[in-house]
């Protein structure tokens, strides 16, 4: 479902060049639920952005469901992402002036569709029907993240990415949000890639990928057995 080949990404900071992705090779099967772990600054967010089509690598390619993401022109790529990819951020990134329901309708609106019915269903799936008319400021952190999850799954994407989705939540809410993500993905056969620091949460998927030492090297991406 997700194939990355020879991904390279570096940043120039002053005179220093920081190599973040060093020729990453990655293959994730349809329906697999993968946790991506590693210390702060290791390149987890950079890799997730790159896999989701949000940041073009300097070299290499990413294919999602057989489509080469970076070979598409920007308009087609945006349309492809809108239908096939859901993305969840640590700080939710809800639009503050829109209600929960309206936030969940945003992907539909971007795609030119009226998605009120699907948005209501998505809010129901995350257990927030009662909060449909609330603004983000009127919701707890855990509830805001569940709205963001509803927004990410409203189009029933084939692939769902989540970058430290529980990073701002206490342990009870973290457990609930992670259970919700795994459940939603499991139900619909969605491929899920989640970044987390938390070893107690990272054991609940099908596989863990570890990124180390501030950069990524195929030799350092260890499959299974290693704890986050
Ligand atoms: P992680 O998510 O694992 O904490 P990131 O992917 O955010 O790591 O960052 C990896 C490295 O790339 C860090 O050293 C960070 O400082 C650097 N980096 C990330 N984004 C930028 C940017 N836009 N400009 C310069 N350096 C960046
Ligand atoms: Mg990060």
Instruction: Give the CA-based shape.
Output: globular
| β-strand number | 9
At the first level of CATH, the class is Alpha Beta
Q: What is the string of helix and strand elements?
A: EEEHEEHEHHHHEHEHE
Main beta sheet: strand number and arrangement? 5 strands, parallel
Main structural class: alpha/beta
Low-confidence stretches: 217-225
Helix content: 25-40%
Give the topology.
Layout (H helix, E strand, L loop, with lengths): L1 E12 L2 E13 L4 E5 L6 H8 L7 E6 L2 E2 L5 H11 E4 L11 H5 L1 H5 L5 H10 L15 H13 L5 E5 L7 H18 L2 E5 L3 H4 L4 E4 L18
Parallel strand pairs: 3-8, 3-9, 6-7, 7-8
Antiparallel strand pairs: 1-2, 1-4, 4-5
Helix pairs in contact: 5-6, 6-7
The site of magnesium ion (MG) has 3 residues, from helix 1.
Q: What's the gist of this structure?
A:
The chain is α/β, with parallel strands linked by helices and 228 residues long.
Descriptive account of the structure:
With 228 residues, this protein is an alpha/beta fold. The chain has a single domain (2-220), classed as Rossmann fold (3-Layer(aba) Sandwich), CATH 3.40.50. The protein is built from eight helices and nine strands. The protein has helices spanning 44-51, 74-84, 100-104, 106-110, 116-125, 141-153, 171-188, 199-202, and strands at 2-13, 16-28, 33-37, 59-64, 67-68, 85-88, 159-163, 191-195, 207-210. A hairpin with a 2-residue loop joins strand 1 and strand 2. Helix 6 runs parallel beside helix 7. The two termini are 23 Å apart. 40% of the residues are buried. Mean pLDDT is 90; it is low at 217-225. The structure holds adenosine-5'-diphosphate and magnesium ion. Adenosine-5'-diphosphate (ADP) binds next to strand 1, strand 2 and helix 1.
């Amino acid at each position: 479902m997700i194939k990355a080949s020879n991904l390279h990404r570096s940043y120039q900071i002053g005179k220093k060049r920081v190599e973040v992705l060093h020729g990453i090779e990655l293959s994730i099967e349809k329906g697999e639920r993968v946790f991506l772990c590693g210390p702060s600054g290791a390149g987890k967010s950079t890799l997730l952005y790159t896999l989701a089509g949000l940041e073009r690598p300097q070299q290499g390619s990413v294919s999602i469901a057989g489509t080469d993401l970076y070979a598409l022109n920007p308009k087609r790529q945006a349309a492809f992402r809108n239908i096939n990819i859901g993305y969840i951020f640590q700080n939710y990134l809800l639009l503050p002036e829109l209600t929960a329901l309206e936030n969940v309708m945003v992907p539909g609106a971007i795609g030119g569709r009226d998605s009120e019915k699907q948005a209501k269903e998505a809010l129901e799936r995350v257990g927030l029907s009662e909060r449909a008319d609330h603004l983000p400021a009127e919701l707890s952190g855990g509830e805001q993240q569940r709205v963001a999850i509803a927004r990410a799954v409203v189009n029933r994407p084939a692939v769902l990415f989540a970058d430290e989705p529980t990073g701002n939540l206490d342990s009870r809410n973290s457990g609930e949000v992670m259970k919700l993500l795994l459940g939603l993905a499991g139900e619909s056969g969605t491929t899920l890639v989640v970044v987390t620091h938390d070893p107690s949460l990272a054991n609940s998927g099908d596989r863990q990928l570890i990124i180390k030492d501030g950069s990524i090297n195929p030799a350092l991406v260890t499959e299974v057995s290693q704890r986050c």
